[in-house]
Each structure stands twice: as C-alpha cells, then as structure tokens.
Amino acid sequence: MKGIIEIYRYTFKYKGITLLVIFFNLLYVIFNLISLALFVPFLQIIFNENDKVITIPIKQNGLINFFKYQAELFDYKMNILTQENPKEALFIACISIGIAFLGKNVFRYFTIWFQSQLRMSVVRDVRNKIFEKAIRLPISYYNNERKGDLIARMQSDVGEIEIAVVSMLELFFREPIAIIINVSLLIYWSPSLTVVSLILLPFVALIIVLIGKSLKRTAQQGQEQMGKLYSSIDESLNGIRIIKAFNAGISIIKSFRYENLKHQRLITKAFRKRDLSSPLNELIVTIVMLVIVWFGGILVIDPSNNSTLTGPQFLGFILIFSQLTRPISNTAKSIANMNKSSASQDRINQILKTDEKIYEAKNPIDLGTLKNSIKYNNVYFSYNDESILKNISFEIPVGKTVAIVGESGSGKTTISDLLQRYYDINKGEITYDDINIKDVSIKNLRNHIGIVPQESFLFNASVKENIAFGMPNATDEEIKTAAKIANAEKFILELEDRYETNIGEQGNKLSGGQKQRISIARAILKNPTILILDEATSALDTESEKLVQQALENIMKDRTSIIIAHRLSTIKNADKIIVLSKGEIKEEGTHNELIKKKGIYQNLCSLQGII
After folding, report:
1. Where in the chain are all domains bearing CATH 1.20.1560.10?
2. Which helix (H) or strand (E) holds 387?
3. Is 383 helix (H, G, I), strand (E, B) or coil?
4. What are the Cα distances from residue 316, in Å, to 183, 185, 199, 247?
5. Cα(115)–Cα(17) distance, rounded to whole angstroms?
6. The Cα angle at residue 586 between residues 582 and 592, in degrees rounded to 5
7. Which helix (H) or strand (E) holds 577?
8. Which residues, 6 or more positions from 498, have their beta carbon under 8 angstroms from its beta carbon?
C-alpha cells in the first residue's frame, strides 16, 4: 500500500496531465461499452424481434435514469424504424456501431498521447532524485556499495516505476469503472443471470493476491542481481588493461556468464509468475461463461421462467460479459506490475533515505581568507569500527607547507579527507582560524580547498572545460594563465583543437603527466586558500615528474599546503614533515631535523636512496 501511495504522489504531481489521462480513459471505457451494447438492436433487426409493442419511455430525474432513458428511447426509435423500414434501421445500426468504435479508438489514442508524457515525466523526476542523492551521499557510501548497483536502480528499477504509473491509473481509474458499468448493464438486462455469473469471480482475486506476493519476492531478487551484473560490467571495463595483461579474460567471462545466468533465471521466473495470472483468469472466466451459457440459455428457451431476457439480449449479455475478461485480466496484470514495482520502489527508497551522515551547520559561519592557521586538535577517527587516526594534533601556519609521510594504510589520505569533510571525526576538532570546520557550510569550506590527487580524474570534455570544472564563470584568459603556471600550455597548443580538444573518457587521450598538469591547472584556476597534494607525482615517470614538480612549486608559493608524499625527495623543502605510523604521529620536524633523529623518517629516506 505504501508503494502505491508513493506512485500516486509521483503521478499526481502533474495533476493536469493525470486528469486528462483519467478523463480520456473514462470516455474510452464508455464508448467501448456503447460499441458492444449497440450490437443488441443490430441482432434484434437481424432476428426480426422488433415487432413487439414498445411504449414511449418516460423521462426521469437522476444520472442513472438519464442513461436508462436514452437507452430506452433509442430502442423505441429503432423499433419503430425497423417496423417501417428494416433496411434503413440496419444501416443506422451499422453506422452507430461504427461511430462508437471510432470514438473508442480516438479516445484511446488521446489516453496514450498524454500517458506517454506523464510516465516519462515521472521517470525523469525519480531519476533526477536518485542522481542528486547519489552526488550528495558521503564518500563512505561508495566504499561499501557497488556503483553498478546504483546504476541498476537508476535504470531498471526506475523502469519498473514507469510501468507502475500506467498500471496505477488503469488499476484505480479505468478497469474498475469498466467493470462497474459493464456489470450495471448486465444487471439491467438480467439480474439473476448476472448474480450467477459473478459468483465464481472472487476466486480470481485470491489467485491474484497469491501470485502478487510471490512475484514481489522474485522481482526484488532479480533487481539485486541486476545490480551485481552492472557492477561486474563496470569493474571489468575499467580494469580491461589488467585483464588483458594477466590473460584473465576467460575467468572474467566465466564469472560474468555465471552472474548473467543467475539474472536470467530470476527474471524468467518473475515473468512466468507475472504472466501466470492472465491465463488463470481466462480459464476461470471461461468456466463462468459456460455456466452462463447453460443458465441463460434455460432462461431464454424455457417459457416457464417468466424471464424478459430475449435471444438478442442474451447474445449481447454474453458479448458484454466476455469483455469483462479484459478489465479483470488487466486488473490482475496491473496488480502484478504494482507488486513488481513495489520491490523496485523499496530499492530506490534505500538510496533516497540513506543517511548522508555529513550534516550542514544550522547557522553556518562564512569563512574568509586564512589569516592564522589550520589546526588538528586531538583528532580521533574510526571507520567501520576500525581505528584509523588516534590523537592527531598539529598546526599548519598560513602560507606554510606541511608534508605527511608514512607507510601505506597509516592514515595519510584520511587526514586530508577529514579537512574536506568527506568524513566527520569521532573526537577532537579541526579548526580554520580557530573556527571548527563543522560550524562552516560544506560548500564554503570546500571553496577554500584545492586538491591535486594521485590519479587525476578528468571528464570526457574539452581541455578548457576540464580546467574550468566547477568554475563556469572563468574567462579564457584565466584558463590560459592557469595552464601556463601548470606547465601545460605547451602540449595543449600542440593538440588538434588546442583548448577545445576533447580528451576522451577519463582523459585517455593524454599521457599521465599531461593529465596531472591539467589537474594542477584546475587547482590553480580555483585559487584556493589551502592546497592539498595527494601523492601528486608518485605515478609519473622522471621527465613528467620534473615538469609536474615545477608546476606544483609554482602553485605552492606563499600558499598554505598539505603534501601527502610517497617520494620523499619532493618534500625536502617542506616547512614541517609529519611522520605517521598506524594512525599516530611518531615524528615531526623539518627534513634535516628528522634526519638527525635517525628514526622512522631517516629509515624511509635510506630505503629511497635520499641519504
């Protein structure tokens, strides 16, 4: 029920279009009934049953009486006309049926016309919500979840919501109306025959409920498996070089086939369960039809029953009742779709309701240019119950450079992540000019920080767009100046379209050194108060490292900087070097001071041949 309410909210956000869909659906149902009901006077003409006397109908108040009066008036006029000119009456009956079928199909087309706009508007809104939430989610979320699973929710799960929009409108605003007016006409013709015909139909509802519950479980398993499949595809394509280098193609293909086979089996099972409802409904209705034919036939042929049901009306009754299979079958199908979409809605809500964890301050303080220092005061941080940092305390004076070194997993990158509030600390505080960064808006804080990561991530766009990423108001001159400072202009001018050259997915048209210099130019253009260099040269060859190091020195002049270093030769001139081990500060000082201590730092320098 909760899922239906959510689909209702998504849909009725567009009240105008939704009401038009409901309105044309209603007209479609009415004209569908009229097109079938008109076969009764047609049959009366054929079987020459309009020779009996029919009194002039009396007009009465009320909506139901209005429709009853119109039907009786039509019968009266057709009776008179049939007695006077049967051929003309037959012609009018055929024209009437043709007009009714034309109206039915015109209104059905208008329903589809507006319905298509409605369903895709809802899909767009849901997909926008998921994507916006995905961008807002903390980095920690992506450490635990597969990207492929998120893509699956944005694709296949949202596709189920699209189907549910149509199913919901049909389930509540078309099929019940069709059933009601069809049954009303049947009762008008023969109440006793209608009662008999409806006795067995509740069994259909029971079957629908049983299948629906089973379908939801299978659908949820299928969608989860689709997430695993997307993750497998994403991971394999991103690691294609490693797969080829280690001749692992066969094992990767084998793994993918296994996951794909599991998905195929689950989805096949879901389709079978969903499609089972229609033939079961049809079987039950067929049994009911046979009972009707038997019971109704007795009413017509046995005069002792005192039934007013005529032969043409009986044939019309069977025709109308046979059409009940469509709305009943569609109701079953819509309920099955709603159950299937309910599983998708649950998966979407898992994303939308995920705790973002990094909360904005209620009354955020606006940061200005750094005047004094950045301080880490007794900072503790744990992730998934694993202690990462313990009692970290140090200061970065304005305009100075602090380098952080240590073995892999010692917590170097975590220190910079905490400053950017990718995570929040468990204990202690980080201050910007004595202002706790938790009291500052996240956007304002990050506006003051620029980062050059170890692996530069570039977008499938032009050089210009990548340098100006996040800074849409940057001028061409500012972009070129940033490229010059980053030692990037020379190779940019050698590209086919210079600054307008598209650099491909993740910048794969550029070398590692070129990508890193574009990344540095991006940081320079931002002109941040604080610069973070996260092992920015560790993945480069000697020649590229030299060019990048020059660019880094250009950007670091008189700027407050944090260097997370792997190659210790790049940090000899840092104002302070902090040595981490297992999340704790073991040593700190300048390069010369730490060498004299002959401790961890001196040992690391010896291993790299620096001393």
Report:
1. 2-352
2. strand 386-397
3. strand
4. 13, 10, 20, 71
5. 8
6. 135
7. strand 576-581
8. 463, 492
Model confidence pLDDT, tens digit, residues 251-296: 788 888 888 888 888 888 877 777 776 676 667 667 777 777 787 7
Per-residue pLDDT averaged across 143-166, rounded?
A: 76
The one-character DSSP state at 3 is H
Phi, psi (5° rounding) for residue 587? -145, 155
Q: What are phi and psi of 293, to 5 degrees?
A: -60, -40
The dihedral built from the CA positions of residue 565, 568, 570 and 575, taken in this order, carries a sign that is: positive
Tokens of 553: 């020195």
- How many angstroms separate the CA atoms of 480 and 298, rounded? 94
If DSSP codes are grouped into helix, strand and coil, which group holds residue 430?
Answer: strand
Query: Per the structure block, which two tokens stand in for 289?
Result: 């039809």
Neighbours of 42 (CB within 10 A): 19
- Which has the closest alpha carbon to 108: 174, 53, 197? 174
Are the beta carbons of 605 and 595 closer than 8 angstroms? yes
Provide CATH 3.40.50.300 ranges for the chain. Answer: 367-448+532-541+562-611
Contact 137, 354 (CB under 8 A): yes
User: Could you tell me the two tokens for 427?
Assistant: 């204990």
- CB of 373 within 8 A of CB of 397? yes
Q: For residue 482, which amino acid is it? A: A
Coil, strand, or helix at residue 451? strand
Helix and strand counts by DSSP (H, E) for the chain: 24, 10
* Residue carrying structure tokens 């009776």: 79
Is residue 299 within 8 Å of 195, Cβ to Cβ?
no
Q: Name the token pair of 334.
A: 């819509």
Question: Cβ neighbours of residue 248 under 8 Å, at least 6 residues apart?
Answer: 242
What are the CA-CA distances from residue 428 to residues 344, 561, 603 (Å)?
41, 22, 31
Asked if residue 201 has pLDDT above 70, the reply is: no
Distance CA 98, CA 397 (A): 87
Asked whether 467 and 428 are in contact (CB, 8 A), the reply is no
> SS3 string of 193-238?
HHHHHHCCCHHHHHHHHHHHHHHHHHHHHHHHHHHHHHHHHHHHHH
Backbone φ and ψ of 204, nearest 5°: -65, -45
Contact 49, 311 (CB under 8 A): yes
pTM of structure: 0.69
Q: Tell me what pLDDT residue 146 has.
A: 67
304-353 pLDDT, tens digit per residue, is 666 666 677 777 777 777 777 677 767 777 777 777 777 778 888 888 88
* Fold classification of 2-352 (topology level): ABC transporter transmembrane region fold (1.20.1560)
- DSSP-H helix ranges across 247-357: 249-301, 311-323, 325-352
- Per residue, the 3-state secondary structure of 476-532, as one string, reads HHHHHHHHHHCCCHHHHHCCCCHHHCECCHHHCCCCHHHHHHHHHHHHHHHCCCEEE
What ranges in 527-590 are assigned the alpha helix state H? 542-556
- What does the alpha-carbon distance between residue 176 and residue 498 come to, in Å, rounded to a whole number? 64
For domain 367-448+532-541+562-611, the CATH architecture is: 3-Layer(aba) Sandwich (3.40)
Quick one: tokens of 278? 């229609």
Using pLDDT thresholds of 50, 70 and 90, give the confidence band for residue 53: very low
Residues 395, 398, 401: CA angle, nearest 5 degrees: 70
